[in-house]
Amino acid sequence: MKVTLQPSGAELDVNVGESILDAALRLGYECPQGCRNGNCHACAARLVEGQIRQGSELLTQGELLTCQARPQADCVLHWDGVLAPGELPVRELSCQLVDCEALGGDVFRVRLRAPAGKPPRYHAGQYLQLQREDGSFSSFSLASAPCMGRELELHVLARESSAQELLAFIRRQGFARVRLPFGDACLAELPDGPLVLIAAGTGMAQMQSLVEHCRANGFTRPIHLYWGARRPEDFYRLPYAEEWQRLPNLHLHRVVSDLCGWEGRCGLLHEAVREDFADLRALHVYASGSPGMVYATLDALLEAGMEARQMRADVFAYAPRS
């Protein structure tokens, strides 16, 4: 039988005689639960449609306990706090400021440490929200990887006054209030083929997280990292550059768009990718940059034979095209 969960929209296939909670756990969902004797109410949900047998009762509406409830027909439940496989809960943490280091190109490496006993949970490639002095939140890609435990890293471009004020606020406080994780352009599992990572400017932060996660987990497939800037001086110092140079499967391509004649590559990022790959069909592509850059890259790679499902970017969620 099928049980549809609100507000997530998830659908559970429940076996005959199986409780809803057991089915959800079997399918890899993370659910609110406590003791299994029906007294704690941690797994409580509300029946919206359908029929449920709970002990000797046959329910057609109202509150139920998912550890005891067994569907008699397809049902709809309102059940808060259920997380799909790979989904992580959003948490708010107050993190100590460890360092705020200039990397060049007006970019600062901000290192934060989460409280002891509260390690942040996120997937490589996700982002967090950082609280400003007025209480609002701004989004920044995580440059750290989950293997770093309590340590969180951001790359902040501080050319605009708003970014400069945010950094000054964090320095004065000595800590930062963050919410995480967000974003689905991440690596919950390592891919089964080559990775192509495409970053403009501080989009490199997200790609650093992906590369460090792959390095920590022994990923041996080729990783082609394309990093774009308008001018050569816009490239900032990469914290793990020396370690990356020793990785036989990592290939870093710096591409400048506005000033040709330097010693590296010139042009647009998608042009470099198309020059290097005659066949795009086996690639797993991640892109980070402005909506205009990401969609131009998507269109160019689709024209070259890539399928849309091969490319992931947070832009697709927060700035969807009509």
Q: Explain this structure to me?
A:
It contains 7 helices and 20 strands. Helix content is 20%, strand content 33%. The radius of gyration is 23 Å and the shape is globular. The strands form 4 sheets. Strands 12-11-14-9-10-13 form a 6-stranded antiparallel beta sheet. A 6-stranded parallel beta sheet has the order 18-17-16-15-19-20, sandwiched between helices. It has a 5-stranded mixed beta sheet with strand order 2-1-8-3-6, with helices on one face. 34% of the residues are buried. The longest helix has 13 residues, at 161-173. By secondary structure, the protein is of the alpha/beta class. The model has no long low-confidence stretch (mean pLDDT 92). Helix 5 (269-276) packs parallel to helix 6.
Which structural class do you get from the secondary structure elements?
A: alpha/beta
Order of adjacent strands in the largest pleated sheet: 12-11-14-9-10-13
Number of strands: 20
Report helical residue fraction.
10-25%
CATH fold label of the largest domain = Rossmann fold
Unreliable stretches, pLDDT < 50, 5 or more residues? Answer: none
CATH architecture of the largest domain: 3-Layer(aba) Sandwich
Tally of alpha and pi helices: 7
Strand content bin:
25-35%
Gross morphology? globular
Going by CATH, the homologous superfamily of the largest domain would be Nucleotide-binding domain of ferredoxin-NADP reductase (FNR) module
The figure for the number of domains is 3
Q: What is the CATH first-level class name of the largest domain? A: Alpha Beta
Family: Belongs to the Fre/LuxG FAD/NAD(P) flavoprotein oxidoreductase family.
InterPro entries: 2Fe-2S_ferredoxin-like_sf, 2Fe-2S_ferredoxin-type, Beta-grasp_dom_sf, FAD-bd_FR_type, FNR_nucleotide-bd, MRET, OxRdtase_FAD/NAD-bd, Riboflavin_synthase-like_b-brl
Domain 2Fe-2S ferredoxin-type: 1-83
GO molecular function, one term: oxidoreductase activity
